[in-house]
Specification:
Helix content is 44%, strand content 17%. The protein has six helices and five strands; from the N terminus they run E-H-H-E-H-E-H-E-H-E-H. Helix 2 crosses helix 3 (50-67).
């Protein structure tokens, strides 16, 4: 069975507990999933700045130590200036991931989810789906159309 690679877009409180001594909910859940399902491949976590990516990498390292689960977590961007569109480069540069988990501020949900759907990915969004009904309806219709 092919390894299940995941793209996580967002690197904040929900993903890794940014700014706290905790670990958020998304990264720990993926670590636990890896413990139960050995077919998880790499996890590609996309932030908007190098500092956020480094902080996420540190949290992933600490989770590896605490859980004993060996999970490859790659964080982006790895260099350069703040880049709110870094996720697009990651989507186009890695070999077809299985899904995207999106945990960014609500007003960014629509465009990022749309880009992920157009890239052929299954998408999981933290709530709310979108700030407006029209955007949510558009994403649902797009997902149906793209199967």
């Amino acid at each position: 069975m092919k390894n299940f690679d995941i793209v996580v877009i967002g690197a904040g409180l929900y993903v890794s507990g940014k700014g706290t001594s905790g670990f958020g909910t998304i990264l720990p859940a993926i670590f636990e999933w890896k413990r139960k399902n050995q077919n998880i491949g790499d996890v590609h976590c996309v932030a908007t700045s190098v500092d956020s990516a480094k902080e996420l990498s540190q949290k992933a390292y600490e989770l590896t130590i605490k859980t004993g689960v060996n999970l490859t977590v790659k964080s982006y961007p790895q260099s350069g200036a703040r880049d709110p569109l870094c996720y697009r480069e990651v989507l186009s540069s890695i070999d077809k991931p299985s899904c995207a988990i999106i945990a960014v501020p609500d007003h960014l949900h629509y465009q990022i989810a749309k880009d992920c759907l157009e890239a052929g990915l299954h998408v999981l969004l933290v709530k709310p789906l979108t700030p407006t009904f029209a955007e949510g309806n558009d994403l649902v219709n797009m997902a149906r159309k793209l199967n």
